[in-house]
Amino acid sequence: MNVLDKYRILDDKVFEEFKKYFPKTTNSTFNKEFPNTSILISMFDTSATFIKNSIFDCCETDNNYAVKILFRSLIEHFFRFKYIFMNWAKTKSDSFAKNYMEYGKAKETLEMFKSQVSEQQLFEPKFKIKIWDIFLKDNPRFGNKTRKEIDDELKKLSFNSIMKFLNKELYRDNDETSTFFGKLIKEYSKSSSYVHGGMRSYKEMGENNNTDYRDNEYNRISGLTCQMSNSIKLFTLIMYVQTDKALFNKHYQKIDKIITKINKV
After folding, report:
1. Residue 93 and residue 252: Cα distance in Å, rounded?
2. What is the DSSP letter of 158?
3. Could you read off the pLDDT tens digit of each residue along the chain, which spans 265 residues?
4. 166, 198, 197: which is closest to 180 by C-alpha?
5. How many domains does the chain have?
6. Residues spanned by the domain of 222
7. What is the distance between the alpha carbons of residues 45 and 231, in angstroms, rounded to a whole number?
8. Which of 39, 149, 201, 229 can bridge 52 by disulfide, Cβ–Cβ 3.0-4.6 Å?
């Protein structure tokens, strides 16, 4: 049995446990007290699972370039989930998740408007529209805020801002977590060349074009992938246990034991 097969078996065990506890989340106290948080962490859990499965598939089909691109995406999903988790842990409020979703949508809307203007300017260089006015018309809930207030909130959602927040929080008192965090930051940076078609990605592909190297890399990345994706499930359960210990604690304990085995493969 190869290393990836071992990760798949352990990952399947986590998924079997997930199928037992997930239906309970709908009527949980946590879902009633923190509905936006519940939606948000579920979305990140789902998307991370999809990415994880794709990474495993690409490892099996020897698609090295795609593995690196997907791996970088998973790291960002993982960090954004940790950002949500830690803010909820600090505030025990649903307002953070609500703001995250609202401002996240606003950020994407503004970026879409800007891209549409840029596209039109390819044919009409002098083309301009009042992006901010259109944005406020379509998003009246932000009408009582100044542009600076909204811009300041949007900046908090940038990946660099999230990294600064997590760096400050994680390095405070947890050496093991901060070490893992630092490791993933390096992985994220190294993988960026593959996402953007950088020269380093092509150089690495050429220099490391041998089966042994790729197999070792697939084993390493699939292990980190399995850790991150299933850690999202574990930390999600930590949140649910705070309000519904009787419902979720046994599932938390089981997944915690499986992740311990994942870390030892």
Report:
1. 22
2. S
3. 789 999 999 999 999 999 999 999 999 999 999 999 999 999 999 999 999 999 999 999 999 999 999 999 999 999 999 999 999 999 999 999 999 998 888 888 777 767 766 766 677 776 665 666 767 677 777 767 777 887 888 888 888 899 888 888 876 656 566 677 888 888 998 899 999 998 999 998 888 888 888 999 999 999 999 999 999 999 999 999 999 999 999 999 999 999 999 999 8
4. 166
5. 1
6. 3-264
7. 9
8. 229
Q: Is 62 left (phi over 0), alpha (psi -120 to 50) or beta?
A: left
Please give the Cα distance from 100 to 247 (Å, whole number).
28
Burial 76-113 (b: 16+ CB within 10 A, else e): bbbbbbbbbbbbbeeeeebebbbbbeebeebbeebeeb
Token look-up 């949980």 returns: 28
Q: Specify the residue for token string 């789902």.
A: 46
- Stated pTM of the model: 0.89
| 142 vs 137: CA distance, rounded Å | 9
**188 in Cβ contact with 72 (< 8 Å):** yes
